[in-house]
From TrEMBL:
<keyword id="KW-0479">Metal-binding</keyword>
<keyword id="KW-0001">2Fe-2S</keyword>
<dbReference type="InterPro" id="IPR036922">
    <property type="entry name" value="Rieske_2Fe-2S_sf"/>
</dbReference>
<keyword id="KW-0408">Iron</keyword>
<dbReference type="GO" id="GO:0005737">
    <property type="term" value="C:cytoplasm"/>
</dbReference>
<dbReference type="InterPro" id="IPR005805">
    <property type="entry name" value="Rieske_Fe-S_prot_C"/>
</dbReference>
<dbReference type="Pfam" id="PF01266">
    <property type="entry name" value="DAO"/>
</dbReference>
<feature type="domain" description="Rieske">
    <location>
        <begin position="425"/>
        <end position="515"/>
    </location>
</feature>
<dbReference type="InterPro" id="IPR036188">
    <property type="entry name" value="FAD/NAD-bd_sf"/>
</dbReference>
<keyword id="KW-0411">Iron-sulfur</keyword>
<dbReference type="GO" id="GO:0046872">
    <property type="term" value="F:metal ion binding"/>
</dbReference>
<dbReference type="GO" id="GO:0016020">
    <property type="term" value="C:membrane"/>
</dbReference>
<dbReference type="GO" id="GO:0051537">
    <property type="term" value="F:2 iron, 2 sulfur cluster binding"/>
</dbReference>
<keyword id="KW-1015">Disulfide bond</keyword>
<dbReference type="InterPro" id="IPR006076">
    <property type="entry name" value="FAD-dep_OxRdtase"/>
</dbReference>
<dbReference type="InterPro" id="IPR017941">
    <property type="entry name" value="Rieske_2Fe-2S"/>
</dbReference>
<protein>
    <submittedName>
        <fullName>FAD dependent oxidoreductase</fullName>
    </submittedName>
</protein>
């Protein structure tokens, strides 16, 4: 469905460099933590899993304190394409092969229940979250995967999902088959977070923004340490995308993946459904609004790669824009952004007690790009575990699970990490090889044992930081499309001044002046 004649074009310099959802007005501010507080439950992270758990617990009468490093609605959830769906690519046939039909059904039930839960919360909210039901399609353009499509339909149906086989999708003339799920959904994720936060406070919970959790002392009770005060609690929920307190080796059990989204203005957005092309890299398509009259913006996502290992990210944005123009008559590029997800070695999230020696400390991570439903399911599971109530899906997400194939993937991924660690330290250029940096250019330089990341901004000012990731000592790589330093080992990301954006690192990159 090639479109060869785009009209007025908005180039990279004028397109907004943040998620479409940031057009939503911010929610009310919450004060930072300034002193020690006592709570029944401390929740670290105000994304979907953290706020869902906090709300469930607060409504059950628990004293809940939520700490958030930035502000509500400024993290990973707000940079999602926000498909609220149990359709996660060609997922269910693989789950049956790896774990059996019971686990596949449990995963399906948890995600379908999450859609219903989100709908109920949206209906009860005072904020318009843009929630609406619509079908979802996952399709392929590869003739050799026709049998895969048929197997996925069968596995999904046996898992109790509203799946059907279709031959065509409106966004691709090259599709050779697709799986359709009925009664899926989409929404504005930032508005939904604001609605959850409002409900948490209305239920008696507390939220502390601009409060970075720096350490966790486990015991009876636990103590979450922050930069200005502590939260003392009987139970702790670590819901920070990647667990900032890693008591279970999660850095070695999942792979960081980076992906990109462009928001394009088109004449006729596909508002009847959302779409996902199963390929490497994948292609995701959804309308931003409910109709062309609402806001004729289409969000096109894809170009995924392992964090820190994808080459020029600017070129990935360019390729994604070209793909958008191949599918639609693009009038302009309105916004562009990237996001990061963590893929577990066996494709199931980790939700439950963090580890065998972390009684009362819970984790929710590894959503593999499907955090709207998996994160909701995860928050509900953790709330039930803390309340000592049965949850029919807890075993599916249990972090203590083990499979032989996952062990093999674990070994491979960590061998790749070791190769990156050793190779980068050996191959970075020495300081005497430094050339003059152009504007908006960066490089990593080595001078003996010192390794420095240097970036020259648009005004010609130079920003120099340590290139050594504070998590485990790997060397960061420059991300030219987002102007960030990204760690190829475990996915920590930092802005060009060294400020941590995403974990597992909890400390900033040291600036040159810190030496």
């Amino acid at each position: 469905m090639s479109r060869d004649t785009p009209s007025t074009e908005r180039n990279e310099s004028t397109a907004e460099r943040d998620a479409y959802w940031f057009r939503t007005a911010s929610g009310p501010p919450y004060d930072p933590l300034e002193t020690d507080v006592r709570a029944d439950v401390a929740v670290v992270g105000a994304g979907i899993p953290g706020l869902t758990a906090a709300l469930e617990l607060a409504e059950a009468g628990r004293d809940v304190a939520v700490v958030e490093r930035e502000r509500v609605g400024e993290g990973v959830t707000a940079r999602s394409s926000a498909k609220v769906t149990s359709q996660h690519g060609f997922r269910y046939a693989g789950l049956v092969d790896e774990f059996g039909e019971e686990t596949a059904r449990g995963y399906a039930e948890a995600n379908e229940a999450a859609i219903d839960y989100v709908e109920r919360r949206c209906e009860a909210a005072d904020i318009d979250t843009g929630f609406r039901r619509l079908p979802a399609y996952v399709y392929t353009e590869d003739d050799s995967k026709r049998e895969t499509v048929e197997s996925e339909v069968e596995a999904a149906r046996r898992a109790g999902l509203p799946a059907s086989l279709v031959e065509e999708v409106t966004v691709s003339e090259d599709a050779v088959g697709a799986v359709r799920f009925d009664d899926q959904a989409q929404f504005d994720p930032r508005a939904y977070l604001f609605a959850l936060a409002d409900a948490v406070v209305d239920a008696g919970g507390e939220i502390f923004e601009r409060t970075r959790a720096t350490d966790l002392d486990t015991g009876a009770p636990h103590r979450v340490r922050t930069e200005r005060g502590n939260v003392v609690a009987d139970d702790v929920v670590v819901a920070t995308h990647f667990p900032v307190f890693d008591r279970g080796g999660y850095f070695a059990r999942q792979t960081p993946k980076h992906s990109f989204v462009v928001g394009v203005r088109v004449a006729d957005p596909p508002t009847e459904a959302h779409f996902y092309r199963e390929s490497e890299p994948y292609l995701s398509i959804r309308s931003a609004g409910a109709s062309a009259d609402d806001d004729p913006i289409v969000l096109v996502g894809g170009q995924n790669h392992q964090t820190g290992k994808g080459g020029s990210t600017s070129q990935r944005y360019e390729r994604l824009e070209r793909q958008a123009r191949e599918h639609f008559e693009v009038e302009s590029v309105e916004c562009r952004w990237s996001t990061q997800d963590f893929t577990p070695v066996d494709d199931l999230p980790y939700v439950g007690e963090m580890g065998p020696v972390s009684d009362g400390v819970y984790v929710a991570t590894g959503f593999d790009g499907w955090g709207m439903t998996n994160g909701t399911a995860g928050g509900r599971i953790i709330a039930d575990l803390i309340r000592d109530e049965p949850n029919p899906h807890a075993d599916v997400f249990d972090p203590s699970r083990f499979t032989p194939s996952a062990a093999g993937d674990f070994v491979k991924e960590n061998a790749d990490v070791a190769a990156s660690f050793v190779g980068d330290w050996l191959t970075k250029p020495r300081a005497e090889e430094m050339r003059n940096l152009d504007v908006d250019e960066a490089t990593v330089l080595r001078d003996g044992d010192d390794v420095c990341g240097v970036y020259r901004d648009a005004d010609g000012d130079v920003h120099a930081v340590s290139a050594v990731c504070p998590h485990m000592g790997c060397l960061v790589e420059w991300n030219d499309g987002d102007r960030t330093w990204d760690c190829p080992c475990h996915g920590s990301r930092f802005d060009y001044e060294g400020g941590v954006i995403d974990g597992p690192a909890v400390e900033d990159l040291a600036s040159e002046s810190d030496d």
